[in-house]
């Protein structure tokens, strides 16, 4: 069952990365010249990260190399993105007027949670690649 989830997540992340690259292609070429702007950095980093994680999960599934660190990488990504989407959907949208503190806190939580889950997932995938197997 976990192997099927790896296949599914890998294919979905690759397709998502290719679609994001296609959407942001004009910004991608412009963003290379303006890499210090965080908005353009994210538009360059997001498709590359998505394709990398997709290929990593497909590699783990096809080679039967699903280790503890690859499971940690997968579950951090899934749980982090799921919780951030749930918090994002319950954050009220305030247009005009003062923004309450709880709305700012909820908005900051889902934004930080989404980014940190992606970074931690990439970190654990690197650990999985460079970890020596002692069997």
Largest sheet: none
Mean pLDDT across residues = 83
Oligomeric form: single chain
Number of helices: 5
Distance between the termini: 25 Å
Q: Structural class from helices and strands? A: mainly alpha
Low-confidence runs: none
Overall outline: globular
Portion in helices:
over 70%
Based on CA atoms alone, the radius of gyration comes out at: 17 Å
What is the β-strand count? 0
Please indicate the percent range of residues in DSSP E strands (runs of 2 or more).
Answer: under 5%
Order of helices and strands: HHHHH
Describe the secondary structure blueprint for this structure.
Layout: H1 2-23, H2 25-33, H3 38-62, H4 68-90, H5 101-130
Helix pairs in contact: 1-3, 2-3, 4-5
Can you walk through the features of this model?
Helix 1 runs antiparallel to helix 3 (38-62), helix 2 crosses helix 3 (38-62) and helix 4 (68-90) runs antiparallel to helix 5. The radius of gyration is 17 Å and the shape is globular. The mean pLDDT is 83. It has 135 residues and is mainly α. It is 81% helix and 0% strand.
């Amino acid at each position: 069952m976990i192997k099927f989830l790896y296949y599914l997540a890998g294919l979905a992340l690759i397709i998502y990365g290719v679609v994001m690259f296609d959407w942001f292609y004009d910004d991608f070429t412009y963003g290379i010249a303006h890499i210090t702007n965080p908005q353009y950095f994210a538009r360059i980093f997001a498709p590359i990260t998505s394709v990398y994680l997709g290929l990593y999960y497909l590699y783990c599934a096809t080679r039967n190399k699903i280790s503890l660190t690859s499971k940690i990488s997968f579950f951090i990504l899934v749980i982090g993105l799921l919780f951030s989407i749930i918090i994002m959907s319950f954050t009220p949208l305030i247009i005009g007027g003062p923004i309450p503190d709880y709305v700012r806190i909820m908005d900051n939580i889902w934004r930080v949670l989404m980014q940190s889950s992606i970074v931690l997932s990439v970190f654990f995938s690197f650990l999985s690649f460079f970890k020596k197997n002692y069997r």
